[in-house]
Structure formats: C-alpha cells, structure tokens
Amino acid sequence: MAAKPPESYLPLKPATFLVLLVLSTGELHGYGIKKAVAERSSGQIDLEPGTLYRLMARLVGQGLIEEADRRPAPDQDDERRRYYQITELGQRVVTREASRMVRLADSADVRTLAAKP
Fold first, then answer.
1. pLDDT tens-digit map of 29-63
2. SS3 of the chain: helix, strand, coil, percent, to 5
3. What is the pLDDT of residue 3?
4. Which run of H or of E encompasses 87?
5. Nearest 5°: phi and psi at 101?
6. Distance between CA 19 and CA 28 in Å, rounded?
7. Which pTM was predicted?
8. In whole angstroms, how far apart are CA 54 and each of 22, 43, 65?
9. 48 contacts: CB under 8 Å, gap ≥ 6
10. Nearest 10 degrees: CA dihedral of 90, 94, 95, 101?
11. Which residues contact 66 (CB under 8 A, 6 or more apart)?
C-alpha cells in the first residue's frame, strides 16, 4: 500500500499540529508532550489525558508518529512511560502544514484587518 501524500493530511487541527511540532524536536513521553503543547500554545491547548492518548493512537495509526525504541536509563525515568517520535512522513506533514500557515499569514493584510471595526 502506497503512503498517502503529506498534503492529504492538511489542514491539521491545532492540537495535531502542535503534537507533531513538539515531536519534531525530539522524543517525548505523553506527559512531556502535554506540557510542551500547553507551553507552545500559551496555555490555550491543554490536552487532557484521554484526549491526548486518543490523538496519539490516531497519529500512530496514520504513520505520523511511532513509539520510540530508545528509552532513558531505568534509574532516570519511570519505566511505565511510553516515548514517541515523529516519523519521516510526520515530519513532511508538519513541515508542509507550517509552510501552509506561513503563506496564509503572509496573505493577510494586517493594516486592513486592524482598520475594521
């Protein structure tokens, strides 16, 4: 089965975009992802555990992320944590979405928008 093109996943929902963006900087466990998403969104997106893990399961199913094989040393981490990493496809998707968002923002005329009542 051929992989879907990255553009077929777009546009991404904000939480999905932020999860992929966070994982594009390195592997993280669920709670670390939750904290990083909240930080990047200035607290506007606060993923509850059930929501987060449903989203993670969907992203794994789509092949955008995967469980990481590498683990921290047992004395430095909780062995029950699952670590996730972005896949090559996930990286292409988040890159295309970021580019799409930049083009949208560039097309907005802030002066005109600010002048509207």
1. 999 999 999 999 999 999 999 999 999 999 999 99
2. 55, 10, 35
3. 76
4. none
5. -65, -40
6. 10
7. 0.87
8. 17, 20, 13
9. none
10. 160
11. 60, 84, 85, 87
Distance of alpha carbon 37 from alpha carbon 61, whole angstroms: 21
Sheet with 65-67, side-by-side order of all strands: 28-29, 83-86, 65-67
Q: Distance between alpha carbon 6 and the CA centroid of its chain, in Å?
A: 14
How far is 20 from 9, CA to CA, in rounded Å? 12
Q: For the beta carbon of residue 108, count every other beta carbon within 10 angstroms.
A: 9
| Strand ranges (E), the chain | 28-29, 65-67, 83-86
Domain ranges, ordered by start, for the chain? 12-71+78-115
Domain 12-71+78-115: top CATH class: mainly alpha
Locate tokens 């907005």: which residue? 108
The answer to whether the beta carbons of residues 100 and 10 sit under 8 Å apart is: yes
- Which tokens in the block code for residue 2? 């051929």
